[in-house]
Amino acid sequence: MIRLASASPRRHELLTQIGVPHVITVPHINESALPGERPADYVQRIARAKAEAVWKGDSSLPVLSADTTVVLNGEMFGKPSGREHAIDMLARLSGKTHEVMTAVVLVPASGTAVRMNASEVRFRTLTLEECAAYWETGEPRDKAGGYAIQGRAAVSVESITGSYSGVMGLPLFETAALLREAGIDSWSTMAP
Fold it and tell me: Active site residue: 67, 88, 142, 185, which one?
C-alpha cells in the first residue's frame, strides 16, 4: 500500500492499472515556476514538493507523486487559466511537435527517489474553431498543455514518441521501477 499525492483521476487509474493498492492524499503546494527555471528542473521540483508535503503530514506509507508539463520551444505550458489561454496554447501546439515531461517521485522512509520521462507528441493542424470546441467539452481545463491524450484530443495527435502513460501524467515504466527498487509490488513483480 502506498499514498498517491495527487488529485488526478488519471494517475489514480494508471496506478490501479498496474495493481498498486493506494490511498489518495491531495497535496497543497505552490506550483509556480521559478524565474528562468528549466522545464525538467521544474517538474522534478514540483513532484518532490508534492511528495514531501504529503510525507510530512503522514509518513505511515510511502508517498508517490508526479508532475507533468508540456514544452514547446523551451516554453512550459501548464494548466490553462481559462478559455482564451487554452485556445492560445492549442493553437500554438497546432501542426507542431512538442515535448511532454513528467517527473515521478517516491518518498519512502529510506530516502527520496526520482525518475524522469520525456515524450514527443505531434499535433495535426487545428483550426481556432476546433480549439474553441474542444475547450467547450470541459476536458482541457485541468490538463497540462490544455489537452488530454486519452480523451477527445486523441483525434488530433498525429504521432507520439515515448510513453503514452507519461503523456497522461504517470509514466508506468518509471513508476514501476521506483516501486520495485523500494520493494513495493506491482502486477509485474507479483507474477508467479
Answer: 67
Q: How many CB atoms lie within 10 A of CB 32?
A: 10
142 included as an active-site residue? no
Task: Pull the grid cell for residue 81.
Answer: 487559466
Q: Which residues contact residue 129 at a Cβ distance below 8 angstroms, ignoring those fewer than 6 apart? A: none
Q: Can you tell me the distance from the alpha carbon of 21 to that of 133, in angstroms, rounded to the nearest whole number? A: 37
Instruction: Tell me the per-residue pLDDT of 27-85, one tens digit each, with 9 for 90 and over.
Output: 999 999 999 999 999 999 999 999 999 999 999 999 999 999 999 999 999 999 999 99
pLDDT band at 14 (very low <50, low <70, confident <90, very high): very high
Kindly report the pTM of this predicted structure: 0.92
- Taking alpha carbons only, the member of 35, 25, 163 closest to residue 102 is 163
Q: What are phi and psi for residue 112, nearest 5 degrees?
A: -90, 135
What are the cell numbers at 70?
508540456
Residue pair 128/91 in contact (Cβ under 8 Å)? The answer is yes
